[in-house]
Specification:
Blueprint lengths: L1 E10 L7 E7 L5 E6 L3 E7 L3 E9 L5 E8 L3 E4 L3 E4 L3 E9 L1
Protein name: DUF2141 domain-containing protein
């Protein structure tokens, strides 16, 4: 098993709906889901393989969300492991191999 860490920091208030994370193995289609209404720093244990990670939700009005994905990757994450968004709706996609 390998460990990846997903850090999400919401600033400017509480998210109107929980932030949701979906980690999917591209080959086996196995999926892990996690959601939180507040900032989080969460570890996920996954098998070696190719993955997509989708993160979506809503920012507080005039708020922003910082997202960082880290781990012992063999490739990726593409494009940028650390992102900041102030858009009302959060939709971020990462691809990585571990």
């Amino acid at each position: 098993m390998k460990t990846i860490k997903v850090k999400v920091r919401i600033s400017g208030g509480l998210a109107p709906v929980p932030i949701k994370v979906e980690i999917k193995n591209v080959d086996t289609r196995e999926e892990i889901e996690y959601e939180s209404p507040t900032s989080f720093n969460q570890d996920f244990n996954i098998e070696s393989g190719r993955y997509t990670l989708q993160l979506f939700g809503m920012n507080p009005i005039n708020g922003k969300t910082e997202i960082e994905v880290s781990g012992s990757f063999t490739r990726g994450p593409f494009h940028n492991a650390k992102r900041v968004t102030a858009k009302p709706f959060i939709t971020e996609l990462f691809y990585f191999e571990i």
